[in-house]
Each structure stands twice: as structure tokens, then as C-alpha cells.
Amino acid sequence: MLGSLRVRVGAAVAGGAVLVCAVFAVATYLIARQVLTAQRQEAVLRQAYLDARFLRSELGTAGTSPADALDSLDPQGATAVLLQQDGRWYSSSFTLDADAVPASLRPPAPLPSTAYLPTRVAGELSLVVAVPVPAVGATVYEVAPLEELQGTLRVLATLLTAGTLAAGVLGALLGHWLGRRALRPLEPMTATAAAITAGDLGRRFPATADPALTGIVGASNAMVETLQRRIERDARFAADVSHELRSPLTTLAASIELLQARNDGPAERRRQALDLATTELGRFRRLLEGLLELARADADPRDAVADGRVVDLGDLVRHVLRESGRPAGLLDAPAGPLPVRGDKLRLARMTANLLDNADRHGGGTTAVSLRRADGAVALTVDDEGPGVAPADRERVFERFATAGGHRASSGGTGLGLALVAETVAAHHGTVACAEAPGGGARFVVTLPLAAP
């Protein structure tokens, strides 16, 4: 990829150099041609006037014939000088005659003024100038070659073309050098990206002093860091899932084997085995529901605030308490609505998980309160359990983690508080674990109040 970039940079610089030089060369050639052509025409016209004045003087002298006048003329810089007088033509050249003059410069009537025309004479580009001399009834024609001028222009065009091509070659070399120099900091980044692609997620893009690459390097390293954490988290999650599924499946298998082995045994033993299987099935069902909820949250991490509707958190908590069979007196809430924006179903499940966590691990819910504070509403759930050690108060929100570092063993799945944390994050809130005033654990969820 870097090689193709260097080629493109070199081609771009070379193309730019050729374009600039080509424009300069064309402009230089056109200006030079215009200036040199104008100078040549001016010199030929000046010489034609001098020759016409000389011939008028010679023809005005008695006894001087047109042929003698032309013989005494020295046509400087001209191929030939022709003279038309009284319908007859005279030439200073042995090879050129009246046919060398364009028909437009020799009309039947005398020309009213000086005229000139570039044309080919004897195969060579020439400038023919016609100067009328009314004093002697004649017209003088000056035939001046332009091949020298054309040769000069050809040399100039060749030099400009060669210069343009040379500029293109130098531009390509310069572009290649600039491309290598500009893309040199990307080479270690390319090697690092290849290593990361091969699976070495511990590699990071090297720091650079180039301000144009600093942001890219920082963002890329942050992306790889996030990817590495996500992969490690998924790996731990898969290991945790396999561990959590093994326990209820093993218990279920043992219970079924016991029922099969003691099909004709005491009813009390069969009932105990059936109760154990039922308990493990319930735990298994809650575990699968939690896993499905986490999978949905991971697969579709939508912004619940942006996509949700306004929900009265006070009414929602009262509804959850009522549906779970808990007394309404547990809730201490201020009068008036407590509007939050989000997903009503997820908020209800979050509240239910907090209450279930208090029942399973905290000896039961002792108090539920709602309070307004600084543009937010705080939902607090207290229990009467042993509480959570300060070292574990952040870890309890991890998946499959419970206080004390033990996995769920009291019918829990270790996913309830993880789902709470996922829901709170999706609603732009915070969740924390602390010590309740009367002992036990206190979980506080803070959500932003909805704008009126």
C-alpha cells in the first residue's frame, strides 16, 4: 500500500511539474513567436520602404531603365525585389518572376497603399511586401524569406519541450523522494497493523512527533485497547457461561438419574430430587434470560435516552413493587412526577434486578427511595444483609461476580447487577454500591431528569 502511495505521490508531483512547465513553455513560445514575427515584419517593411525610395529616385532620373535601376539595387535580407511598371515585370532574381507574387497583391488597378502577405515562394515561407510608387507609376515588391525565423522558433520549441520533459523526470524523482520521506513514519505503523491483524493484540502503534499522525496514532491505539479488552471480556464471559451452565446441568442430570434409579423408592426422596431439579431449572431459566439480555445489549448498544420516551420513575417503581408482591410502603418518594427519558421495559427490569439482588444476597429489601438532586433522580435500594466489602463494591457489577468473590450459589446467576450496570450506562446514568445506614448494602442508581 505504501508503495502505491509513493507511486501516486511521485506521479502527482511529476504531473504537476509537467503541467506547470507545459503552460510556461506554451506561453513562452507564443509570446516569442509573436515578438519575433513582429520584429521580422517590421524589418522587412522598413527595407521595402528603403528599396522603393531608391527605385523611385533611380527611375526619376532620365535615361535609367527599370532593369538598370534593379541592377544598381542591393536587396539586403531579401530573396528578390520585383518591379511592375506599365504592365511589365522586372526582377532582381534569375529564378523569381511575377508568379512569385500572390494574386491578391497584384490586382488590375494599382494598390492604394502598402500591403504584405506571408506565402510560400519557391517552396519556402516568405513575406511578400507590395509598396506602390505612384510618382513613377510603378509598384515595388519585396520578397523576404522567413525560414530563418521558422528555424529559430523550431529550436525554441525543441528546447521548451525538452525542458518540460526534463521537469517531468525531475518532478517524478522529487515526488518519489518526497513520498518516501512523507510516508516513512507510516512504515512502522503498517508493521504494527499487520502484527495486530495476525493476533498480537498487545502491540501498539509507536508514538510519533508528527502532528498530522498524532491523532491517528492515539485513536488507533485506543481502538486496539478497546478491542483487546472486548476480546478478553468475551473470552472471560464464555468461560464464565460454560462454568455457570455446567453447575445446573450437572445437578439436573444427577436429579434425573436419582428419579430414574428410585422410581419405586420413597415418595419423600423422589420429591426432594424433583424439588432440586425444579430449583435448578429455575436457575437455568434465569441464567438464560440474563444471557439473552446481555447479548441483546452487546449486539445493539443503542442510546436509550435518544431512542426512548419520557417515563415517570416514581410510577414505574411503584408498579414493579406491586407486580413483585412487595409492600408499597417500602418506597419513600417525593410528591410529583420524576420524569426520565429511556426504555420503560429496561428500567423496570433494572429495578426488579435491584430488588431481587437484595432478596437473594442481602436478606431482603429494607427500603426503596427516590430523591431529586442536581437535575437527576436517585433510586436507592437498601438491604439487611452483611453488606459488600469496599474492595468488591465495583467488582459486583461485573458479569458472574458476587460479593466476596464467590459465584452465585443461592439461586442467583451473577448477572443481575451486570444487567443493572448495562441499563444505567445506556441511560447516561451512574450506579454505585455503598453501605446502608443500618448495615447491609445500599445500591444507588442516578439517572438524569428528562428535559421539560
TrEMBL record:
For the HAMP domain, which residue ranges apply?
180-232
- Predominantly, its location class is membrane
Which residue ranges does the record assign to the Histidine kinase domain?
240-451
Its transmembrane ranges are 12-32, 156-179
According to its UniProt record, this protein's enzyme class is transferase
Q: Which reaction does it catalyse?
A: ATP + protein L-histidine = ADP + protein N-phospho-L-histidine
* E.C. code: 2.7.13.3
The residue stretches assigned to a coiled coil in this entry are none
Q: Record's SMART domains?
A: HAMP (SM00304), HATPase_c (SM00387), HisKA (SM00388)
Q: Which GO terms describe its molecular function?
A: kinase activity
Which keywords are on file for this protein?
Kinase, Membrane, Phosphoprotein, Transferase, Transmembrane, Transmembrane helix, Two-component regulatory system
Q: Where in the cell is it found?
A: Cell membrane
Protein name as it appears in the record: histidine kinase
- What organism does the UniProt record list as the source? Motilibacter deserti
User: What lineage does UniProt assign to this protein's organism?
Assistant: Bacteria, Bacillati, Actinomycetota, Actinomycetes, Motilibacterales
